[in-house]
Each structure stands twice: as structure tokens, then as C-alpha cells.
Amino acid sequence: MAKKEMVETAQEGIPQNSFLFESAYEVCNQVGGIYTVIRSKVPSVINKWGKENYCLIGPYFADQAAAHFDPVHETESPIGKAVLKLQERGFGVHYGQWIVSGRPNVVLFDPYSVYDMLSEIKHSLWSDYHISIPGGDELLDKVAAFGFQVTEFFRCLDLNQLGADKIIVHFHEWMAGLPIPGLRREKLNVKIVFTTHATLLGRYLAMNDPKFYDHLAFYNWEEEAEKFNVKPIAEIERASAHGAHILSTVSEITGKECTHLLGRSPDIILPNGLNIERFEALHHIQNQHVKVKDQIHNFVMGHFFQSYPFDLDNTLYFFTSGRYEYHNKGYDLTLEALARLNYKMQVANIDTTVVTFFITRQPFYTINPEVLQAKAQIEDVWRVCEEIKEQVGKRLYTQITSAEGPYEFPDLTKMVDDYLRLKLRRNIQSWKTHHLPKVVTHTLKDDSKDDILNFLRSSNMVNNRHDKVKIVYHPDFIATSNPLFRMDYNTFVRGCHLGIFPSMYEPWGYTPLECLASGLPSITSEIAGFGDYVVNNIPDHDEKGMYIINRMGRDFFDIAEDLANKMFEFVQLNRRERIALRYRCEEESLHFDWSNLGRYYDEAYRKVVEL
User: Fold this and answer.
1) What is the pTM of this model?
2) Which of 48, 300, 315, 544 is 20 to 30 Å from the Cα of 77, by its Cα?
3) Are 28 and 64 a contacting pair, CB within 8 Å?
4) Is the separation of the CB atoms in 104 and 205 below 8 Å?
5) N- to C-terminal Cα distance for the chain?
6) Residues pairing with 522 in the sheet
7) Are residues 138 and 213 in the same domain?
8) Residue pLDDT, tens place only, 97-137
């Protein structure tokens, strides 16, 4: 896999007289990062291909489709006719539009509608391609049923009636890749691109081997797949990779996994982008930051100030987020570095507080009742203050406009009723506590085995008054329905100051890119796909808010010291320097807009039709 594939090609545009199908298990089905890739890319794709030459394929799940899918009843087009044929055979096939920007055409297949054929489907997979799908695995059953239906769709589709000489089918990830061997065996007149966004085997190996990349060339994929009980998925990944005309992945670092775990090196790298317009704040990025930061202030005051106050004007908000993979996501490294940062700030007597949010998902019973109570109590305090403000305002206005003689400023304390004084005092006293602020906002189902909590306990980072670094561990993703924050994740990001994502295993990593698009600097590692791309393609990236730490082949504690030093340098920036950095981040984010990075997809499609 040569670096030359990552440079911009001289040839422009997409293949002429062509039709593009794009298939992913996360079309109209929000599960993870691939949903963001496909959804954010749609406007750019339609701008190039037009709606008439582009169609998406995904699974149909009623609960997801209700919010994402608009059905249409059309049986005259080639796709409509193929859908009708499958419906007549009893398949649960739905044709319509995805309710996203661009409103692309989409065909969705209900896996459950062919469950009566599962035994036959699995038998064919084994006899034809030596892919073994065990019984009783719900996800694999759905993937097998979905793959069978997609294969049948292309068998029924009259490719000659699509009005294009070249038909390209782009499959994303193993859950959508199962039709590839069948399409090649049928010798259908389609050109196939397969993108693996990560290898499942690689993810498991990285979680269990701190020197994963050093050992990558020496793994026996079959033995390791059996060891982790993921052999069927590994078989699907390998069959998809070897069956495609063009194999692609999202980063050079993941390309190494393909070479050693899938047995084929990628033909091209397709880095992930975003629809940056969705994040642009119309040149009011700093105003947006201040507005959202005030909302986070409200949470912090309720959570911390009942125990002790600190200066919010000298408070910085750091955060890390993603699925709960303690080592892979670099949570272990982040915690160690934060402990060192806490010590450095205390020794240097820096008059700043850092509140760091861990936003991930772990099993929990409910939001901690004490956290909710503190939130409700400070809101009561606010409401009383508002009542006092309204009462004093009216009385002040009346008194100063009706007073005779020389002007004297009135005694405001006399303008507040005893009832409101007592109410405010009672609310404050019931809210204040001598306990330390909670580290975790929810009641975890097994907090004694939680790695994040156990590190914080052992390092005594439990939100002591003297700690310069405070921790808020929020084991659920942030959404507008969340009573603690009442905002969505992207809004929350805008109110923070620094994102921390020093992943040990991350095929791409959208979190630092989302930070960049929101005008937020972040730290990631060079063995994350995004970090690897930045190192090789963005000169002076530190000055543009993309901090990269080196993890490959280094001692854990040396890396933690580097990370702590980067955070310590950031803490010492003044407000003017942080604002300037924020503007540079947003400006540089345009590099990652699909209007720019979409050219790699265009090149993949040009290559595949030439084969």
C-alpha cells in the first residue's frame, strides 16, 4: 500500500455513464461511526452523481425506519421493478428515501422476513464459500439474511435498464460485505469496492496485546479468530476483501491490519470526512463557545459548588468520549496524564481549574439520585434569585422615579420581602454539603470492576478541594433529553476547550475531527487513523489545534508524561491565545470536508471501472 494513493490525482470527476450503489448496515440504522460516514457524505455524493444515478442499500428495522425513512410506491424504474419482484417472493423490501440532506433513494431489506430460509442460507454460505455461521447468534443471523436479500436484489435487477454502462457497488464493513462472493460467482456485470473501516479481529487483538502493532505480522488469523470466538466474522471479512475488485480502508494504519489479518493489502485509502457546513457557526464561533460554556457552567455549579466553589472564569473544560474500551480508546493513558497534570498544576500553583468529562457508555441503573437532587436544588436557588431580581427591579424603578429631592441610591436589601429572604436561605442551606462532589454521575451496575473508577480511587483523584483537575465520569452519551446537560453532544463539544483522544487502536476516529469542525483543539495519537493522516498531510498541525502524541513502540509512562506536558502547555495559554487557536481549528476543518476528501472515493470508482 503506497503513500502515492493518498495524494490528489490529476484526473477530476467521477466515471462517466455510471451508476453507484452504496451498501452499509448503518444506512437508516444508527449504530456507530459508519452511520456518520455515510450520512455526512450523502450531499457531496448527490452533488456529483445526481439522485438518479445513486442508490443506498441498508437493513430495515421498524423502530429506526420510523425516524429515518420515507417510503415511496414506485414500480416503473428498474429498481422499483426489482423491489416488486422480491416483494412478490415474500421478501420484506422497502423502497423510498432516507430523511437526510439530499434525500437519497434507498432500498431497505427486513432480515426477519427471510428467517424461514436461514438454514438454507447458512448451508449455501458454507458449501459455496466455507463461511460458517453458527446458530443462536442474533447479529450473524441478521447479517446472513440481509446479505442473502441484497444478493437476490442484484440478481433480480435489470442492470441494462439503469441507463449506465458501468455499475459500481460499494460495500462498507463486514456486515454489508457478505453478498460480495455471490456477486462475483454469478459474474454479474458490476464492479465491487469493499471498504473495511476496521477489522474486528484487530480490535480484539489490540484490546489484549499492548504491543499489537509490533506483533501484527506474526499473528495467525485463524488461530486468533478461534481464540476470541469471532471466526465467522473473520471469514466474512476475508471473503469480502478478496472478492472485491478494489479493497480499501480508512487509514494507512488500518491498511497494515488488512495486509496481515485479511491477507490482502488495500488498493486505495479512503479517509473519512464530514459535512463541515453542518458545524459552521456563521463566523460566530466564539459567541457559540461562550453561550454553550455558560450552560456547562450551570452543571458544574450544581455539581461542585455545593461542596466548594472555584473561579469559573479560570476554569477549562477538557473531555474525552467514545465507546468504553479502556485501553484501545486511551482512557488509561488519559487518566495517568491527568494525574500528572494535577500534580504539575499544584506544584506550579497555577490559578486554573480543569474539569475533565469522560463521556462513554457503561451499564447503569439510573442517574445518581444525589446528582439529580443537587441539580434540582440549584435550579430552585436560581428560581428564587429570579423572583428576587424581578421584585427588586420593580421596586427600584418605582422608588427612583417617584423620589423627590437629590438623587440617592436606595438600600436594595429593604426591597426584598422576608419571605423571599427566608426561601433563598432555606434553599442554599439544603443544597450545601460537606461531602466531596461525585466522580460518576450515574449508579453503575458494577462500579467495583470499573477501570476508570478504580484508577481514580487508587490515585485519590476524587474531586478533593485542593485538586486542580476535577473529574466528571458520565457513563452515558449526552443528548438533549439528558436532564443534567439538556444539550446534544455536538453542542456540548462547542462549550469545551480541549478534546483528549490518545487512542492505542483507532482505525480513523471521528471525535478529534468533530472537535476540529467545532473550532476545538484536540490531542490524538499517531497510531489513530486521523492522527496518522494529520501527521502525513497537515504541516504545522500543532499550530492548527491538532496535537499528536507518539505511541508506537514507546513506554506507557513516557507517553503519559508527553500527554501531561501537552495539556500543561495548553493550560498556560491565555484567553486571547485560546481564541486565536479556536479560529485556526475551524478554518483548518475545511480540509476534511467531503468536497475535498470525496476525491479519494472518486479515484476508487475511476480505478474500479478500469479493471
Assistant:
1) 0.89
2) 48
3) yes
4) no
5) 18
6) 499, 546
7) yes
8) 999 999 999 999 999 999 999 999 999 999 999 999 998 89
